[in-house]
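Human: I would love a firmer grasp of how sequence relates to backbone shape in proteins. Could you go through the record with me and say what the backbone is doing? Here is the record:
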Amino acid sequence: MAAETDLRRPGIYLDKFIYTRSGSTDMETRKVQVTGGSTYTVSIPKSWATANDVGAGSEVEFYPEGDALFLTPKTEEERTEGTLDVTDLTGEELVRAVTAMYVSGFDDIVLESSRITTGQRRTIREAVQSLVGLEVFEETKETVVIRDLLDSSELSIHNAVTRMRLIALSMLEDALAALEELDDDLSRDVIERDDDLDRLWLVVSRIFRATLRTPKAAEKLGLPREVCFDYQSSARQLERIGDHATKIAHLTLELEQPVPEEILEALEELREEVAQVIDDAMDALFSEDRDVATRVANDARKSVQRIDEDARRIDSYLRNLDPARAQLLGLIVDSVSRCGDYGGNIAETALQKAAPSP
């Protein structure tokens, strides 16, 4: 192989080629040359070509992203496999380990041990059931193979975040409805729905991490990686809103006496304000019109301050209650108010998305 490999692909325009060695901050530049009067060529460093098995006759792929052009060796579609020793893992640690492997993007997850116990197998199945697309594919005495049966390229991060928005808002609304009626069944339903929200959050995280590993994943999604980051950041806020709706439902189960009407009315007004902030922030995030997104997101941010003021007003109503009830209801007011803060965070993300790119 020559010191540097020339790539002669007609129709590819490059301002410059920047190469960063893995684990190093060294940078190299290349001058673009013209051959044959119409073909632009640029050389690539031999060390990179050798490390990635690129030689004479190899094919590479180019992925444009704004004013950047990413180059990667062309490879056949292959399933990625990750292996994990679970000998010392049980319970929540084992669940977190399986979840981490899933979010990291492995198509096949091989769990190994000298002997996988019945308890570990039960925990693994519970973990698999909580993750979208996974199935236990094969089991032996020493291994459990988990396979992702969904094609990640067919998953839509936009649809997943949209679904999270609907679930989070409905959970918050129903949590306050359960509080008004002291409806234990509705409270438990809200708590159960949090699992659906968590599953979608993990799907969004898996898709996002895939876009960080390779520009091919972002191209299949049809979204820039910066937008995928904005969606992932906002999905995190929606997941937290679901957590607080769940907290309200748990607190409602502890209440034994009806909540005074004036407090219920004030809480419902607060929830409506919070829901409006979240809806406006999500509309701004999804808007393709920068001016509209900026205006709507700024309005949502301004509303957060009013939510804080209204929450303090409700706190003043609690002073006339006995300490135990006042404490429980105070926690509920705080959770509703925090949901407004999370909506404000989504609005901030929408503002960043709408801002001009440098």
User: Anything to note?
Assistant: The domain at 155-354 is CATH 1.20.58.220 (Methane Monooxygenase Hydroxylase; Chain G, domain 1). Residues 1-25 have pLDDT under 50 and may be disordered. The first helix runs from residue 46 to 51.
